[in-house]
Design goal:
Elements lengths: L2 E5 L4 H16 L3 E6 L12 E4 L9 H4 L4 H31 L3 E5 L3 H10 L3 E5 L10 H18 L16 E3 L3 H4 L10 E3 L24 E5 L10 H9 L6 E5 L12 E4 L4 H4 L5 E4 L3 H9 L4 E3 L6 H10 L3 E3 L7 H13 L1 H15 L4 H22 L1
Parallel strand pairs: 1-2, 1-4, 2-3, 4-5, 5-6, 6-7, 8-9, 8-11, 9-10, 11-12, 12-13
Length: 392
């Protein structure tokens, strides 16, 4: 039995893939512990061993986010969220590593403190990549800025001999929850030992209730979601979509602020949360913000997408979908009712979009997601154990 210490940022889209991998490891009899912020502790299994990283930092508000575009939003996220979170988490994560003494640390690529702690303690570690935009070189200026910020962070904690340009990606293994085909070659990648494992199947997540009896099999079905912060978004986008589908003979599941339920017609169901992996096989198409998990989980079911990116990595992921021929673009802040109606009619009827999505689904289904990720981790621990035994 080996010991695995997982650490992820307090964001559901980063937690869920890690939960799936941890579930496989636990089923194989290994011991798993978590070093996480208190805010996401309730989303872990009740029996999980946890080391607290305190309260989660506050994400930039929707109003602030609307003021920045493109790569500037990536810089803002890094500067106002990722770096402060790393500085705050370092001492507590360092202590967790000392107490638990893992055989392998499993570190989300945006959990910078985990990468630095693993380097300092000489602990074997792997990176989990939950958005492929993070492994791409988007701009020489942005890349240089990121390396400068990472160097400042390392100087706080690491001796100079352990400092490198990009300490955030493991030199041992970087597990990417996507397809190499989907990522494409429009942008060069950061140098790292990548393994693309597809999409996790959703095991290990906490169950979420859903009124399954509401679904009518004879009608096309559309999922509308802006990810884990859907319920916190301004309602305009949802209002436009709701008006666009008002007279359409379809069913719509909308992950939206609860206030939207009062104005929803009978064929639109407004939810705070949904069991997304279980619900997607019942859908015919998806409207989303091009969040990485929603995109990959939808494509793994052969569902075409309307992508309405807002900020951060989303424009990059949206471009991947469009380049793959599996989706169409919608302007999040500028969409009108007529534009939305035309896009929805197209996504539900265009056979070329559906064919491209189904082609990607066959590729996703050819790789075993969290099972392969867990296998790679177990092999890494076994090989190091064998090396130590041989040395003795």
């Amino acid at each position: 039995m080996a010991r695995y210490l997982f650490t992820v940022p307090p964001l559901t889209g980063h937690l869920n893939p890690a939960l799936s991998v941890a579930s496989v490891l636990c089923s194989e009899g290994h011991e798993v512990a978590w070093a996480v912020h208190d805010d996401i502790r309730p989303k872990l299994p009740d029996s999980a061993r946890c080391f607290s990283l305190g309260l989660a930092p506050v994400l930039t508000s929707t109003e602030q986010a609307a003021q920045v575009k493109g790569l500037e939003s990536v810089r803002l996220f890094f500067e106002d969220y990722s770096l402060p979170m790393a500085r705050d988490a370092l001492p507590m994560l360092d202590m967790a590593c000392r107490i638990f003494e893992p055989d392998l640390m499993v570190v989300d690529h945006q959990m910078l403190a985990g990468a630095l702690v693993a380097r300092k303690h000489g602990c074997p570690w792997v990176s989990l990549v939950t958005t492929t935009a993070s492994i791409l070189r988007m701009s020489p200026m942005l890349d240089a800025w990121v390396e400068e910020q990472l160097l400042h962070l390392q100087r706080i904690y690491l001796p100079s001999r352990l400092q490198v340009a990009r300490p955030d990606l493991s030199p041992q293994q970087v597990i990417v929850f996507s397809l190499e085909t989907l990522v494409g070659d429009q942008h060069p990648r950061l140098e790292a030992p990548y393994v693309f494992v597809g999409v996790p199947r959703g095991v290990g997540r906490q169950p979420i209730a859903f009124p399954w009896h509401w679904l009518r099999p004879e009608l096309p079905k559309l999922l509308v979601s802006l990810g884990t912060v859907s319920r916190d978004r301004d309602t305009r986008f949802f209002e436009v979509i709701m008006e666009a589908v008002r007279d359409m003979p379809i069913q719509v599941i909308m992950v939206a602020p609860a206030v939207m339920a009062a104005q929803a017609p009978d064929h639109v169901l407004v939810c705070d949360y949904i069991p997304q992996p279980e619900l997607l096989p019942h859908m015919d198409a998806v409207i989303c913000h091009a969040g990485h998990n929603t995109v990959c989980e939808s494509l793994a079911q052969g569902l075409p997408l309307i992508v309405a990116p807002i900020r951060d990595d989303q424009p990059v992921i949206a471009r991947q979908v469009i380049d793959a021929g599996a989706g169409i673009f919608m302007r999040y802040g500028k969409v009108s009712v007529s534009m939305a109606r035309q896009a929805i009619e197209k996504i539900l009827s265009d056979t070329a979009l559906k064919t491209s999505a189904q082609r990607l689904a066959s590729l996703f289904n050819a790789v075993p997601g969290e099972v392969q990720a867990a296998k790679l981790m177990m092999e890494s621990v076994s090989s190091r154990t064998a090396l130590r035994s041989g040395a003795l």
